[in-house]
Amino acid sequence: MIEINNLTKKYGNHLAVDDISLKIESGQVYGFLGPNGAGKSTTMNILTGYLAPTSGEIKINGYDIYEEPEKAKTCIGYLPEIPPLYVDMTVYEYLKFVCELKTFEKSKIDEEVKRVMALTSITDVQRRIINNLSKGYRQRVGFAQAIIGSPDIVILDEPTVGLDPNQIKEIRDLIKGLSGTHTVILSSHILSEISETCSHVFIINKGKIIANDSISNLSNYFNSHQTLEIVAKGDIDKCKEIIEGINDVTSVTAVTGEEEGTVKITVEANENCDVREDISLALSAERISIFEMKEDTTSLEDVFLELTGEEGDNNDSDI
Asked: Which whole-number Å values give the CA distances from 174 to 25, 80, 131, 220, 240, in the listed order?
């Protein structure tokens, strides 16, 4: 679907994109995740043909984006961070105009405009001037123009920035609805955005891809050793002694709990071992009540911080 080979972009002495190579398959929702200044927006703009790379190659469905730009761009729908709207037009007029730009047959334009308005739930505002719409509706209109013609690839750069929680949920639902029939590439620095909408993630930092895997695989990589947090009612030394005697337990630490008579215990176990049942049975056999037992799993946020090692710069408006 998309093949990127040795992509590099320099701005003077600043290396914004550093020798990126990727293959993106069809039908999935991919997330580009990175701190501010990582190179996300630059990569998105190069993918869509808005920026030329310093070096490297991009093929969209086999078409080189710079040698065969018209053929490559017909495969792409793009929603930049700031939607490209003509705010003095009505919603219907604007989407009709986009269809004309994409050289739709005149007889099919009305049908296509109605289709994308229905998909993005903006039919009820089709006669309103875009300038009078809320930010959420404007984002929907931008989304609608990106999917006109049912492009194989939909690229979304920070699609929910500045939206309220209800609007964010609506846009996320739209993105999820495209999976399977479209390849979606979503750029964001918001961790929850990626974890809730994407099946696969690329983590980019300082212009380089430092992780390329499914979200579950990335989390499992850091979750290879089980860690449990337990709150029990009993003697602290006795609890430690019991748990330390269980096979596959590698480490036990315990401190006095917040409630009187309780103990907080952190347990680590060998790789790919689940000791929850053994601990529960062992403590129960000694009439020690378990108030809480939870597994400490690594979130996408933990993975992101572990891999990037920093929060990044605050200078990534477009770089």
From this structure: 20, 16, 22, 28, 50
The amino acid sitting at 236 is: I
* DSSP three-state, residue 105: coil
Residue with tokens 């039908």: 27
3-state secondary structure of 69: helix
Q: Which amino acid is at 62?
A: G
Averaged pLDDT for residues 209-223: 75
Of residues 100 and 194, more confidence is placed in 100
Which amino acid appears at position 16 of this protein? A
Higher pLDDT, 306 or 45: 45
Q: Is the pTM of this model over 0.70?
A: yes
Contact status, residue 266 vs residue 283, Cβ threshold 8 Å: no
Q: DSSP character for 297?
A: P
CA neighbor of 304 nearest in space, from 190, 186, 227: 190
